Amino acid sequence: MRDSRSADDRLAANSAFTADDQPSTDGQAVQPVDQALLGGAPQRVGRFEYHYASDTWTWSDTVAIIHGYEPGQVKPTTELVLNHKHPDDLAQVKGLLKQSAAPFSSRHRIHTTTGELRSVVVVGDAILDDGGSIVATRGFYVDVTESLKAELEQSVSAKLHMIVAHREIIDQAKGMLMMAYQISADSAFGILRWRSQELNVKLLWIAEKIVAEVPALMDTHANVHVRIPIDHYLMTLTPPDTISK
């Protein structure tokens, strides 16, 4: 049935909540299984239906928009649907078109009409006729592109914070060795790397130990003798049993 609402109204409905605080999918309430798969209110979710005998498709305006079309601009066909799939994901998607009573889900990539690469999750289930025979499959598309970007950005951000924190500790350890031995930063890093390789532990672990324990060994009034306890510390440093390089 053709939805008489405007494209803007339909898009608003896709991102809004219904009266009972359930997110809507093309104007239909999202079912519990939908919410479990989506993990919350969807950004862009659209329905589709495929009939095996006639090899015909119907998809909602939202699915058309996900592929880069205006609502009602094209009539979907198997050829058109497959042409939008990323070449590396095409075999996987073709396998889903085989007639089956089993529910399915697929996470793959599509190229839009403008060439943009988007990531989608497609979930479907079988439609049976009155005699119990499988005649079609229907389900929904979820555009997860922005979610993946957000996850990636969060992951990269977290790793950058960790790298910065680790770098600060390593620089502190290098500074202590540079002062104690009157050596360059590269030479100090060489000492850290040498002990890391010899003890088969992470270089960061060596740096953390030096930053935490060496200051107590340093006597700034001992002059040439300042290095003696540090020499002993470096040579007798032993790794914990659980640390691996």
Q: In a nutshell, what does this entry contain?
A:
By secondary structure, the chain is α+β, with helices and mostly antiparallel strands. It is built from nine helices and seven strands; from the N terminus they run αββαββαααβββαααα.
Kindly describe this structure:
- The model is unreliable at 1-25, 32-42 and 220-224 (pLDDT under 50).
- The strands form 2 sheets. The protein has a 5-stranded antiparallel beta sheet, with helices on both faces.
- The chain is built from 9 helices and 7 strands, in the order αββαββαααβββαααα.
- A hairpin with a 4-residue loop joins strand 3 and strand 4.
- The radius of gyration is 30 Å and the shape is elongated.
- It is an alpha+beta fold and 245 residues long.
- It has helices at residues 7-15, 32-38, 61-66, 78-83, 90-96, 145-181, 185-199, 203-213, 227-236; strands at residues 24-25, 28-29, 45-51, 56-59, 104-111, 117-128, 134-143.
- Helix 6 packs across helix 8.
In sequence order, what are the helices and strands, one letter per element? HEEHEEHHHEEEHHHH
Total strands: the figure is 7
Average pLDDT rating: 74
The percentage of residues in β strands lies in 15-25%
User: Can you summarize the main beta sheet?
Assistant: 5 strands, antiparallel
Distance between the termini: 62 Å
- Secondary structure: helix percent: 40-55%
Shape: elongated
**Spans with pLDDT under 50 lasting ≥5 residues?**
1-25, 32-42, 220-224
Radius of gyration: 30 Å
